[in-house]
Design a protein that fits this description.
single chain, 169 residues, 7 helices
Length: 169
């Protein structure tokens, strides 16, 4: 029986030592656990919501072109970059970007425009005019990624989704 009590005593002593070790680690590490700094967040892989929204808007414009003509790759890339930059700089809402990502036709854009502020639409139109000159969407058979006529800012075939102030009133 003496062997059993020695084994029990050794087990109890080991358990007490383990508990003391755990307690001392907790005291050193503090209440937050480990004293190491958390690793920086990993950037998401793949295109951003703004990049996907701009791709969708430009694709909608390209879909309206004749299939007999070569696509205007340089102009499409410039428009895609312009839309993405405006989205990122102006902080388009997740709802607006998701709406634009899902857009399949110009008619779909009217609902998306309601999710953007007047200033966001105006900035897109302004930059489009500055980069491509003249009236928004001028000189392009593709016209706009949005229906024309819902917004004074988007009238004339802009890449900005129509439906600004006039459509919201």
């Amino acid at each position: 029986m003496r062997g059993t009590s020695i084994a029990a005593s050794a087990a109890a002593s080991l358990a007490a030592s383990a508990a003391a070790a755990i307690a001392s680690v907790a005291l050193v590490a503090g209440p937050g656990g480990c004293s190491h700094e958390a690793p920086p967040p990993v950037a998401p892989k793949g295109p951003t919501a703004c990049a996907r929204a701009s791709d969708s808007m430009v694709q909608t414009m390209l879909d309206r072109l004749s299939t007999q003509d070569a696509p205007p790759t340089d102009a499409a890339d410039a428009m895609r970059n312009l839309i993405r930059e405006r989205c990122e700089q102006d902080g388009w809402s997740p709802e607006a970007t998701q709406c634009l990502i899902a857009m399949k036709s110009q008619d779909d854009a009217a609902n998306c425009a309601k999710l953007m502020t007047d200033d966001q639409q105006a900035a897109l139109v302004r930059d489009e005019q500055a980069q491509f000159g003249g009236k928004p969407g001028a000189g392009s058979d593709a016209g706009s990624a949005a229906p024309v006529g819902g917004s004074a800012a988007a009238a004339g075939g802009s890449a900005a989704p129509a439906g600004g102030p006039a459509a919201r009133d």
